Amino acid sequence: QLQLVESGGGLVQPGGSLRLSCAASGFTLDYYSIGWFRQAPGKEREGVSCISRNGAYTNYADSVKGRFTISRDSAKNTVFLQMNSLNADEAAVYYCAASTYVCSMNERRYNYWGQGTQVTVSS
Q1: C-alpha to C-alpha distance for 24 and 76, rounded to whole angstroms
Q2: Which of these, 62, 48, 67, 60, lies nearest to 107 by C-alpha position?
Q3: Tens digits of per-residue pLDDT, 39-82?
Q4: How far is Cα 74 from Cα 55, in angstroms, rounded to an integer?
């Protein structure tokens, strides 16, 4: 069974950092572009970042450029999202997803989704 599992969410103060992980079971992430998305209450889901199959290409939403870093570790079959300088309006459920297409911020390009991990930013 193909499964993505996110972890690393939690409560962080404004200005703090979190590192999210997206681990795969039942398939190898190397064959997929991976995207991170987030959805806050009452808002549409938005693309945060994506990484190509070989990790050579990455893309970020303008709002997170310079603060978030996406990376992948083939040996661990895991993709990471390092998030620094978080602010309160970035509190959301963060999802990872796998795509057979190129790295994209369009969620319709993604075939497999995890269940999400909650990120809360509050003092």
Answers
A1: 9
A2: 48
A3: 999 999 999 999 999 999 999 999 999 999 999 999 999 999 99
A4: 10
